[in-house]
Amino acid sequence: MARVAVLVPLLLSMCNAGAVSSTATAPMSTSAATTYLNQGKTCCAALKLVLPGKVSYPDSTPYNLSLTSYWSVQEENVHPTCVVSATNTLDVALSVFLLIIGGQVFPGQCDFAVRSGGHTPFVGAANIQEGITIDLSALNQVTPSKDLSTVTVGPGNRWSQVYSKLDALGIAVGGGRVAIVVLATGIAVNVTKSSYPDLWVALKGGSNNFGIVTAFESTAFKQGKFWGGFIGNDISTKDAQFAAFEALNGSPNYDEYAALINSYVYTPATNSWYIANNIEYTKAQANPPFFANFTSLPQTFSTMRISNLTDFTIELAASNPDGRRQLFVTGTYGNSAKMMSNIFDIANSTVHALRGVPSIAYSLSFQPVPTVITSKAAVRGGNSLGLSAADGNLFNLLLTVSWDTEADDALINTQAKALFDQSATVSKQLGLFNEYLYLNYAAPWQKPIAGYGAASVANLKAVSKKYDPKGVFQVQVPGGFKLSD
């Protein structure tokens, strides 16, 4: 999905609320699971017995389709022993239960990964070499309630799929209220603010450490067409851009209909930069005053228009095509034009080493994180991110790099680390450093969960111990960011 869609989980995790629901039952007995394992001799073979037609092996069409559907080449090049193509919650529950028992019968042979509709790019985040990958792509339901107050969304969706169905109804989705989660026992439960309050908070930021979500029930609101698109500017306007960003992000009258991604794109062929602002204003009103400091700058191109959310998402996705090697790196800093300028200068000094990388694409994206967003968490039940209005107005930095050849991996990672190490040093000197790292943008060598703060991490570990005492999702699911990182 495009980067604007990647920001949605950050906003949802800060803003979602809850309701009451019930639990499901275990999918099978331990003795039955052991029987299947003994018959199958391996976890993949046992899963094939339990889930006929839903387990595929290398060189088969379903297996190859699963691998080629990954966004990054790094994940596509990871080859599991088999892929489970789940089509419902029971498939997931059966798989988890059998794999837990299998991990006891065949230690080290039943590790697994879970992939859904997201696109974390690094190796092993949602795939596993010589293990079992549970593919949730077919759990792609988008089911509005009769009164259109909620929408049930499957984790296998891409946001463009969700938006295309909801645009036709004149609605969009906000915060999640209920999540169906398969726990480390193989039991599926409906997690809500009232039924599992500790797990409900832990899931909002806890990533894949607590279970497998097979459905989200999200609140819905009316949403018609709105104003948005891209505006291009010459790099000579960068200082004015930084000042405009600081003023917008720090506005005491922040317009909650406004969204901005302020990006600086490097062109290696000419050793130059240009600016691309992705602007959305969720009313059918062109050129709202809140964006005047940006829209008044000289423009090199513009796609601004009144359209729907699906159209804008497709436009953004075009700038992030599948089939390439990818790197995300992120940081969080206090709202400051000076800090933004320092980051750009550091990037400009480190990016030159990458000019020889064939077909490299390199961009810095700044996104506002004002207190009008971070203040929502407490009134909506809380989350695990460790952010609050007390942190002040912040901005998120995302470095996105894509390239073609594995031989360039080390150089690109080295230069990316240099950028963020130097940015951390400068931000600490200026009193603008914030330890929070948006997990969906984090590089494999970053520690986003630790960035939630000691109190939040301690709570996450306590919840993990309660619902997963044997550490299945810490050890048997090795991918992603773990609580011990």
UniProtKB/TrEMBL annotation:
Protein's name in the database: FAD-binding PCMH-type domain-containing protein
Domain of life of the organism encoding this protein: Eukaryota
InterPro entries: FAD-bd_PCMH (IPR016166), FAD-bd_PCMH-like_sf (IPR036318), FAD-bd_PCMH_sub2 (IPR016169), FAD-linked_Oxidoreductase (IPR050416), Oxid_FAD_bind_N (IPR006094)
Species: Elasticomyces elasticus
Domain FAD-binding PCMH-type: 76-247
GO-annotated molecular function: FAD binding; oxidoreductase activity
Gene3D superfamilies: 3.30.465.10, 3.40.462.20
SUPFAM superfamilies assigned to the protein according to its UniProt record, in alphabetical order: FAD-binding/transporter-associated domain-like (SSF56176)
Pfam families documented for this protein: FAD_binding_4
Record-stated family: Belongs to the oxygen-dependent FAD-linked oxidoreductase family.
PROSITE patterns attached to this UniProt entry: FAD_PCMH (PS51387)
Signal peptide start and end residues: 1-17
Keywords: FAD, Flavoprotein, Oxidoreductase, Signal
